[in-house]
Amino acid sequence: MKIKKLEIYGFGRLEEQQFNLNRNFTQIYGENETGKSTMQTFIHSLLFGFGRTEKPLYVPRFTNQYGGHMVIDDAGSELYIERVYRDGTEQLTVLYNNSPKDGEWLHQKFNFMTDAAYERIFSFDVLGLQQVHKLTEEKLQDYLMQAGVFGSTEFSTLETDLIKEKLRLLSPDHSEGELSDHIAEILNLQLQIRDEEVKLERYEQLTAEQFELKQKIDDIKTHIQQLTKLQQMKQKEMIFHHSAKEWKQLELKLNIEPLVFPDHGIERYEGLKKQLQAARRDIALREEKISQLRRENAAIERLAASDFATAEQLLQEEPQIKVHQKNREMLERDIADKEATLERLQHDIGWQEYHAVTIDEALKDHLIYALSDKEQLNLKAAQLQREISQLSREEELNADKLADITPHIVTDELFRTGIQLSEQRLELSQKTELYHKLESEQQRTAEIEEQKRQKLNLIYLLGGLVGLATAAYLFYLQFYIPASILLLIPIIMMILFFQNKPVPNNQNHIMQDEIIQLETSIQHLQSQLDDQFDLEGQRALRDRQLRILDEKAALGRKKEQLQLLLTEEEAALKKVNDTLNRTKSMLQLKLSYEDSLLPDAFRTIYRLQQTYQQLLQLKASLSAEQQQLDHFSQKVNAFSLVSSDVAPSVVFAELGGLVKTETRNRKEQQRLTEQLQLAEKELATLQEGYKEMDTELKQLFDEAGAAEESDYYRQFEAFTEYHQNLNRHHQLSQLLEEENFTYEMSTQLAEQTSEDLRLIEGRITDQLKEYEQTLKEREHEHYQIEQMMKTMEEDTTLSELNHRYAIERNIVNELALDYSALHYIEVLIDAHRQRIKGERIPNIIRKASEIFTLLTEGRYIDVIYLDALLVKHKNGQIYHPTELSQSTKELLYITMRLSLVDHLRYLYPFPIIIDDAFVHFDKHRKDKILEYLMQQQDNQYLYFTCNRSTNIPAKQTIVLERHEKELK
What we know:
By secondary structure, the chain is α/β, with parallel strands linked by helices. The chain has helices spanning about 35-50, 105-110, 115-120, 125-130, 135-150, 155-170, 180-195, 200-240, 240-255, 265-300, 305-315, 320-350, 360-405, 410-475, 480-500, 505-530, 535-585, 600-640, 650-705, 710-740, 745-750, 755-795, 795-855, 885-905, 925-935, 965, and strands spanning about 1-10, 15-20, 25-30, 65-75, 75-85, 90-95, 100, 125, 860-865, 870-875, 880, 910-915, 940-945, 955-960. The strands form three sheets. Strands 2-1-4-5-6-7 form a six-stranded antiparallel β-sheet. Strands 8-12-13-3-14 form a five-stranded parallel β-sheet.
């Protein structure tokens, strides 16, 4: 699983960048603050997500997109992972061979590897190496083994924490610990609870007494309620005793046959009486109105029906005749306007009479294009003439410039002499500077050599003196052979002393001769030139002269081209003018007619033709309108009731008055007829209503059994009194029923006297007072018992003890569960460690030996693990890791990590990230380990560093630069 490509949309300081990574090894180089750590975090985030709260969000400053994507080569298959952070949520896109997948699939694809585990196993930096130097001998053994076997040191940390937690809960002898303290507290609470439970027996006795007394109080209250209801009943009977007596008296009065009288009899009788009087008055008025309407109808005069129809028909034609008159007037005005317009348009284009020329859109387009071409050709010709004039002025200006600078330019021979002089001056300056540097260096060297020579001469002299003294001493002791041999030493020393002379240095003489020759040559060249000679000025003048000559030649070529273009444009202009003259002849225009006005002339001719056709149409319409008016005059002359040979407006006024008068007479006659019919109908209705009211009045008298009006009123008074008594009886009956008095109870109450009711109510009141006194005594006893029980209930000692006992029991249960869980986890960790060590250690130690031997170039030949981790030197010595140097300990740590990565490559083939982990190594060891990593084919290594290695090819190196906006 190797990363092929990274594309960063925006992540921290990295924005809109793409990186192509090598399959095996890539060096990512960058100075501080160029984004190396940001790029590592980006890789972690793409693999495992942004949602890691322990790390800050790398929100970019200069772009809106936050995220990116990577392409991974998974054994020939392509895995595409994109993560973008938008609106506070992470959006994940996963494609496996262009097939979309989800985050759960990706987590399973990574074999459920987490970000923290990946960082511990597949990513290491200098901080992990620094941790190695802080450990003691025993801890260093554990740290190296756990880094190589488990990938992290969390197992040892977890095991230590488990032991501390178990000791905190319970000591091995169960005498100390949080769990032991809580168990002792539970035993103490149990003793206190048993003492408090004795107090419950008295409380139960009081409860029984309270229940018995409560039963007695309830019985007394029941008797009091019954007596109260009986007392209330007697009091209510005393209140309604008078009503019951009145109810019974009314019942006796109403015990007769019911009286009969018409409903609303008096109102109905008085109303009918008034209606009959009004009806007699209305009938007399209707009869008088009918006579008047008949006289008015007979006095109206009317026209014959045929004359009225003819007048209406002629009057209906008034709008049309007016329209025809108006149209005739408008047509006459339009004809005059068109004729004037026709004459004006002909005058505008110089026509004396109308010509029927043929024009169309093609001619119009041809004319427009010809005028446009003529205008463009005129503009081009004028522009060319202006450019030719401008070129002539520029040629004159260049000639003036050339005449100004020519006298100031020296001959070519003097110019070459000046160049030679400048070069020799530069050479003299460089050689003089070099000579002085060599001279100072040789002088310093000579002083050092002289000091060395003097020291050697002193050594030779001292050595000769010592040898001579020693030889003399040996001669004195008669050791002639050794003395003779030692005598050679002073001789040799003296020879060396005299041969050690200063060595002359003639190297600077050659350089000095060359400088003198250059100075002589420079003086000779200066004599050939004036004192005011300026080489740079001459170069500038010659460059300016050359530019002016080039410009002169270019202007001449450009002027010839412009003359040729001007000739072509004039020929094209002549051709366009000929075309326009032919168009004028075709349009019957003079040749002197302005060309620019030809489009207006075309539009004028078009309007002339349209106006001429419209004039013909208007004359035809005028003839038709005149025929309609003549036909109407003939109809008017045939009608005798109006004047003839007058204007149509007078005829229509007479017809209107005639029709209006006849219409008014007809409407008046119709109105009188309708009013007459309505009055006759009203008269018949009034007469019929009068008969019905008279009949109804007789029926009222018959129903009441009265013969005249006075009998009718007496019968009404008797009927009213009967119904008043009946309503009062109903009210009393309803009142007694609402108070729950039955008919028998009401009858019995009416028969009793008021004195009897008062005696019964007094006896009930006395008995009720006796029961209330007894109730007060029983309630006082009940209150005393309640106070005693309340005092016992307010004593919360037992409940508090029970509550504390329950809390302590729960705490003990939870602590026991925690202790069991800790022991279980400890067993699991120990079993896991033993299994992992049995399976992984041989393979990891074997691979670590190979890597360590290779990286130490055979100085250490084996990594051994028996009961401890050891290394074997090539001389056979066995060393503990603490006996190694700091860099060798770091190398051993890296070896164990690389061995673990190699062991896990089939299960977790992830890229390995190395963050400048070799800063403590010397150059040789660093190059050696980089060479080893570059040779690995199974895993991809990403090496982040701020010290670029030149041994890594450029195609395997990515250089990070600072952001341009940050540099600003």
